[in-house]
Design brief:
It holds the Pfam family BRCT. InterPro entries: BRCT_dom (IPR001357), BRCT_dom_sf (IPR036420), DBL_dom_sf (IPR035899), DH_dom (IPR000219), Ect2 (IPR026817), ECT2_BRCT0 (IPR049396), ECT2_PH (IPR049395), GDS_CDC24_CS (IPR001331). This is Epithelial cell transforming 2. GO terms for molecular function: GTPase activator activity; guanyl-nucleotide exchange factor activity. It is built from 24 helices and 23 strands. The longest helix is centred in the C-terminal third of the chain and has 38 residues. Helices cover about 40% and strands about 15% of the residues. About 35% of the residues are buried. A hairpin with an 8-residue loop joins strand 21 and strand 22. A 9-stranded mixed beta sheet has the order 13-19-16-15-14-22-21-20-23. Strands 2-1-3-4 form a 4-stranded mixed beta sheet. It has a 4-stranded parallel beta sheet with strand order 6-5-7-8, sandwiched between helices. Helix 10 runs antiparallel to helix 11. With about 775 residues, the protein is an alpha/beta fold. The chain is flat.
């Protein structure tokens, strides 16, 4: 259909499911007269309907037809239905395109009726619907502000909240038949920032923290002014340092705790202020109740004594001491793992915190021998340690794993695995150790064996600790990197690290405890042994327990030397876009990395720069990304470069049937090939490559590859997997790979998206002969 047909207006007829254009009697004109259109009415024939196709919904033609209630559509609707092979879309209103088909919008915060009327018309022209009231059927909320009931409901239900610009930008792309406004990549740019219409001030924070919060306020759509400015809508208060407000509160300003600020950033939406309102320390509900109870009693009444007991109980409950140490400098944040066998340097790591009362408190021993005292200290530190691990899991790991988070997942799956590792396993074994120590102290005698408790779980400690301790430095680096690059994760940490359970310690400081725990336990067991008499059977058991802990720490230190190859797996995950998360595995390590150029049409186009990552059981194949015009832009205006490589396939080494060492010829230099058989293919495939890096020795690379293939398929004859082959027999050539003509040819091939199929028919007999 020529574009001239849509220059002004076309009349069409619809009969059942088919579209028939009638243009033989129609004359293209700028103005439409009623006499000319009347001849195309089929009012007496119910099988036909007049449909007008217009390319301009602002023209006089459109106004004329719309006022007379004619059915009007735009060219994209016709093309969309033709592409889908569907009948023409029915709409009781003029329909220009299907850009907002199946979208249901609701508006809030608009005061200019003319602007809202224009937006509603655009939505209808793009196939969307409008709902006056917010409900579960609404797919998008268009908001001018972050106030109102509709906004709160949208936040609670996870409905996207967008600015009016989203509608205008979608209308600009109305002629793109394949475009849809609901695509997440498109609409993310138009999200309403959490602090839109908010003017914040900050009270009680250090200059560094205040500067950080002011910067994030601007990034999330708000403004900031000094405390006391009448234009402020919110005052964010550091509740732990502010005891008195500098002025009397006003109904025109929200006085909120810092948790409201960080919570809004974490949700990527303005949080409700009601549950975050700041209260003076002496205005807390418990304190008010205490004062009320004391003021209502008389000096000589028995009732006073009972109420006084209730009051004190309430107050002590509110001021319960945390099992964590008081705030201090944080050397652990910069602490490096070091050698765990050198326990003489870890004396400062022994926990000396107040023990948190357990469900069955340890009774006081009458004589309180030195052996009993150190054993009790061991139990107290074990109890505190379990509480710390529980805090890490309950306050950090589980909320981050929770499904249906507002704004989507905060961290990716591989980041979660890197940060928390085997913490659940460590928590499980130490919970049981704590329970056994509690039972031991409850029925204490000098002959009770402390050493048996740790001997009992020695194998589980060996399994649980090395995976975490060996990767602790990477865990710490991942936390720091994500906190810098992901504002929602930074906000999540700020909220939870301020809670009493954390004792004002960072997640990194909490996670270093497993690194410190085993050396401190070894010291305490040595102390118990020192206070155990020679005729006590537990003395030998304690020696065995200490040796078992040293064995665990030795195992950790030996594994650390093997960890460098394993750490590189994480580098691969972040370097390769789309890399499968299941690449991360405790048994997997990176063996070799090779830079190559593809010589065939498998697994990618000829001439592509391909990187091969050889692991001990699989081969990750990734190509260099094609030139990207724009870097990724987040809703906050931040930009970051995309990963340099694009995932092609992660292939188990068991799929490699033969490794071909291609002989050097005039037309083929430094090349090799793999004969592979994926389970989804009926025939063998040929992957051919040329080594790109001069420092890579082909023979070394191929022998290393064959050795790991043989290990994977349990074969001893690794050398037999290599076969020296003439490249001409496979029609493989490296000739002109770097020539200008060849590069231009590849560029044209990529641009036009024309892929020439590679026929395997002529090569099947060749491949079969190599097996």
């Amino acid at each position: 259909m020529s574009s001239s047909i849509f220059e002004n207006i076309i009349i069409g007829k619809i009969k059942q499911a088919g579209l028939f254009l009638k243009d033989d009697k129609w004359k293209h004109r700028k103005n439409i007269l009623s006499e000319q259109t009347s001849m195309y009415r089929y009012g007496e024939n119910a099988n036909f309907e007049s449909v007008f196709v217009l390319s301009d919904f602002d023209s006089a033609a459109y106004s004329y037809l719309y006022k007379r209630e004619n059915r009007v559509v735009g060219p994209p609707v016709v093309l969309y239905c033709a592409t889908k092979g569907e009948p023409l879309q029915f709409s009781c209103r003029p329909l220009y395109c299907t850009t907002m088909l199946n979208l249901s919008l609701c508006f809030t915060g608009f005061r200019n009726k003319e602007e809202m009327k224009n937006l509603v018309n655009l939505v209808h022209h793009m196939g969307g619907t409008i709902r006056k009231d917010f409900s579960t059927k609404v797919t998008h909320l268009i908001a001018y502000s972050t106030r109102g009931e509709k906004y709160r409901l949208a936040v609670c239900m996870g409905t996207p909240i967008l600015t009016p610009s989203w509608i205008h930008k979608a209308w600009e792309r109305r002629d793109d038949v394949l475009f849809h406004a609901g695509d997440e990549a498109f609409r993310t740019e138009f999200k309403v920032p959490p602090f839109q219409d908010c003017v914040l001030s900050f009270l009680g924070f250090s200059e560094e923290e205040k500067s950080n919060m002011e910067e994030r306020t601007l990034k999330h759509g708000g403004r900031h002014l000094e405390v006391g400015d009448e234009r402020c809508t919110h005052m964010v208060v550091e509740e732990n340092s502010v005891k008195e407000l500098p002025f009397s509160s006003s109904n025109n300003i929200f006085i909120v705790k810092q948790e409201w600020f960080w919570g809004s950033i974490q949700m990527d939406a303005r949080a409700g202020e009601s549950i975050y309102l700041y209260e003076k320390p002496n205005d807390s509900p418990a304190m008010k109740k205490a004062v009320s109870l004391l003021s209502l009693t008389t000096p000589n009444s028995n009732r006073k004594r009972r109420r006084l007991r209730d009051t004190l109980a309430q107050l002590t409950k509110e001021t319960e001491i945390s099992p964590f140490p008081p705030p201090r400098k944080r050397p652990s944040a910069e602490h490096s793992i070091g050698s765990l066998l050198d326990i003489s340097n870890t004396i400062n790591y022994v926990e000396t915190y107040s023990s948190k009362p357990s469900k069955s408190s340890t009774p006081a021993h009458s004589k309180q021998s030195a052996r009993w005292q150190v054993s009790k200290e061991l139990y107290q530190t074990e109890s505190n340690y379990v509480d710390i691990l529980s805090t890490v899991l309950q306050l950090f790991k589980l909320p981050l794993e929770k499904e249906g988070q507002v704004g989507g997942p905060i961290l990716a799956q591989e980041e979660m695995k890197t940060i928390f590792g085997s913490i659940p396993d460590i928590y499980d074994v130490h919970t049981r150790i704590k329970s056994d120590l509690e039972d031991l102290l409850r029925d204490w005698t000098e002959n009770r064996s402390v050493g048996n408790v740790f001997l009992k779980y020695s194998k589980e400690l060996v399994r649980a600790y090395p995976p975490f301790v060996n990767f602790f430095e990477m865990s710490k680096e991942t936390i720091v990197r994500c906190e810098k690059s992901k504002p929602r994760f930074h906000a999540f940490l700020k909220i939870n690290q301020a809670k009493p359970e954390c004792g004002r310690q960072t997640l990194v400081e909490l996670l270093i405890r497993p690194v410190q725990r085993l050396p401190s336990v070894a010291l305490l067991l040595s102390d118990i042994k020192k206070h155990t008499s020679d005729d006590n059977p537990d003395k030998i058991t304690l020696e065995k327990a200490i040796e078992s802990l040293k064995e665990v720490m030795t195992h950790i230190n030996e594994d650390k030397r093997k960890t460098e190859g394993q750490k590189q797996i994480f580098d691969v995950v972040y370097e390769v876009d789309g890399c499968p998360a299941n690449l991360l595995s405790s048994h997997r390590s990176l063996v070799y990395r090779v830079e190559t150029i593809a010589l065939g049409d498998q697994p990618c186009d000829r001439g592509e720069n391909v990187t091969l990552f050889l692991f001990n059981d699989c081969l990750e194949i990734a190509r260099k990304r094609h030139k990207v015009i724009n870097t990724f832009k987040s809703p906050l205006g931040q930009t970051r470069p995309p990963p340099p490589l694009k995932h092609i396939t992660l292939m188990p080494l068991s799929q490699i049937r033969r490794v071909l060492d291609l002989q050097d010829t005039d037309d083929c230099v430094n090349a090799f090939a793999l004969v592979v058989r994926p389970p989804t293919e009926q025939e063998n495939l040929l992957f051919s490559f040329q080594l790109a890096a001069e420092e890579t020795v082909k023979n070394t690379w191929l022998r290393t590859l064959c050795r790991h293939v043989a290990n994977t398929i349990c074969r001893a004859d690794a050398e037999d997997l290599i076969q020296c082959t003439d490249p001409d027999s496979l029609q493989v050539s490296t000739k002109d790979m770097d020539s200008t003509l060849s590069k231009a040819s590849r560029a044209i091939k990529k641009t036009s998206k024309k892929v020439t199929s590679f026929l395997l028919t002529d090569h099947r007999s060749v491949f079969t002969s190599f097996l």
